[in-house]
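ENTRY TYPE: paired fold submission
RECORD: A
CONTENT: sequence, then structure tokens
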Amino acid sequence: MTTRFVRDVADSWRVSYKQNGYPHVQQGWVLPPERKAEFDPFILMAEDWFKRGTFSDHPHRGFQTITYVIDGRLEHIDNHGGHSILDAGDVQYMNAGWAARHAEEAVADDLIHTLQLWLNLPKTLKTMTTSYQNVYLEDAPVVPIDGGHVRVYSGDVAGVTGPMQSLVPITMTEIQLREGATYDHVLPTNHNAFAYVLAGSVNLGSSATPLEKTDVATLTFDEANEGESTLSITATSRAKLLVYSGVPLREDYIAHGPFVMNTEDEIRQAFRDYHAGVFGPPAVK
């Protein structure tokens, strides 16, 4: 019987927040962009509280986003006629590909609270057609566990498959536990992974590292091992956390403004294309 790799916390930190005023009320970096080399295939994660008018019509190229709604209603508008409203617990996956142009707005007078993760695309997929997928709360399978449950948005986890159709292999899981409950979360060993505590407190990994609400932890992994690994989670109070994982791409890239490409020339070309109208008309209803 093959022994599973046992995960531990590689590093951890507490998110700090900026008070921006109106309409982008508050922002924090869950995964700080200046540390992006550590997070491959992930680039950054932003936590935002915002009113309508913060993220109106804007372009993207060369990467993917995964937006998780914590509270409020998020209105999606794109310039291909797409329109949807997402509520708490819903997720939108966007493959920006070659030329995305969209808006992410709070509905009416809502104060929306979201987490947006940027996920890199390999060089061979950066010119793909743009696509969007909404993963509604009720469509993500839920697996009961002792002392809680696991909701799977992406990947093969806990015997179920999440509905998110990512272009690169990732997992995204929301885990809720009662106080005192322990759960061994199984992930592919070669996935780089991190956890973010949304509520309560947990002890994480083989070292039982204590984490509380707004704490982030990157996890140990073995990139050369294609087996399975376990991450021990014990709730020291009623807790909710998100766990993300993905296979590193190991490609050099540049993230500049709304674009993520492999060279400076490609970044400059993206800006030229946007101003020349290649991305199409504005994203408005």
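RECORD: B
CONTENT: sequence, then structure tokens
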Amino acid sequence: MVSSNHEAMHRIFQHDLRLFSRLSGMLGLPLPPPVEVTVLPTDLTESAPVERRVDTLLRLDSADDGSLLLAIEAQGKKDAAKPASWAYYTAYLWTKYRLPTALLVVCQDRATAEWAGRAVCSGPPHMPTLTIQPVVVGPHNMPVITDPAEARADLALTTLSAITHAGDPDIDAILKALSTALQGVPEDIADPIIEFTAQGLGKHPAGELWRKLVAVDLSFYKSFISEEIRDEGRAEGRTQQGAKFVLAVLDARGIAVPGSVRERITTCDDLGLLDQWVRRAATVPTAEDIFTTEDE
């Protein structure tokens, strides 16, 4: 199943077609700036029944060095089958378009990035034949952007920085710089950045931090993801109030609440269940009894 963070890691290059050109200098790639960048179809299926799709495919046309194809793959974990797929993608594209073909792999953790950057040969050691070695983007070589002014100067690059550094200690500062940089930015520019960041961070703990920053720092935006974030925040607020009400009733009746019971109440996110506990808290002899089902 394709995850939302998988989509964000490569679609950010479709959103900002010049992002790779700016990134290539940071990666030490001597590529001239393209005159034009075109998003190409990603379906690499032949007449055979096996469907093959590269994540994102760009054609970069430059005035001096001609054209090249850039296949971009988002990779969340090590996968022994991937080098063969990548070799197929690049060979197929080279054959179809007759253009130099490069592969960029975007990773969110260092171990996967190190694995993805290895050279893998299709043949035996004495006859390597075809070697695949992607250029890899990940937390090991992406800049850590914590200055709001720097973030504002390149929102797409800062988004990619946040996505690739999702598990790093600096992620809080990166996200705060990005949320600050987005303040005052027109909504049509800010909305996709907000959404790419949320998708790219996914269920990672940093994703929750981003949702809170959006709810607080960017409360005036009305995009789908920002509205979803605020709806979640309102629901979370209601459950917190419900838990406080349960504890207040027990406290008013002078009933001791053990730590394990308190934790179960305060971590409950089911409003219906909290409502049942409130009603039971008014009559139960002990705090533990609020968890007793009504049928018992």
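NOTES ON RECORD B: The beta strands are 36-39, 56-62, 66-75, 101-107, 120-121, 131-132, 135-137. The mean pLDDT is 85.
STATUS: closed
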